[in-house]
Give the backbone structure.
Amino acid sequence: MSADKVALVTGASRGIGRGIAVGLGERGWTVVINFRGNVEAAAECVALVEDAGGKAQAIQADVSSRKDRDNLLAQVLMTYGRIDLLVNNAGMAPRQRVDILEMTEASYDEVMNVNLKGPFFLTQAIARNMIELIRDGVIDNGQIINIGSMSAYVSSTSRSEYCVSKAGMAMMTKLYADRLANEGITVYEIRPGIIATDMTSVVTEKYDKLISEGLTPIRRWGQPDDVAKICVAIAEGYLPYSTGEVINVDGGIHIQRL
């Protein structure tokens, strides 16, 4: 592929985002690594992408902030003049797991702003620019990948705000896929299951037991690289006649079993 293609991966300093960034770097992409606060982790990710053979730049921005989103997009376009791929990966779990009957509005608002409102409006802004870039012949097409979660359909009443945010992202994927298909932009949702990241580290013992007992047909933890492989396949153009597609990366947990 052309080495000048540019991907923006939000929340890319650690976990799934880092895996995606490195995977794209291995294919020669230029990767903009968005991060919210961990400067050291972002710098490590830049080094990993470059070691893998890509180019990388870290840009700090909170996707839940309109000002930060505007600045992020402006910096990408000013530096590279193009954006071929957006990966909406940034997300957070509630700061405390509490029963749905005790959840606060403050927690709901924070999680929804980061997990749904931010990606929704970042996608809106970037899609508008992608349309112009395609019409001007700068890029051939655009791609948007939303990193959802099995929590879009699996109830977790101790983190209900997270589940609602991911269910919203599922519809967001359909809406943008429908609207943008005729513009030359395809939209996908990758729906991870139990992936070994900082977010799941607090429940390692719980999920070790459940996985060993057969919660997932594939009896192991998922790894960030499992998600990255799907992102790379999409980015490299292996799903050209698909949009609005949901790809489960969950060890088969979505399969209803008796």
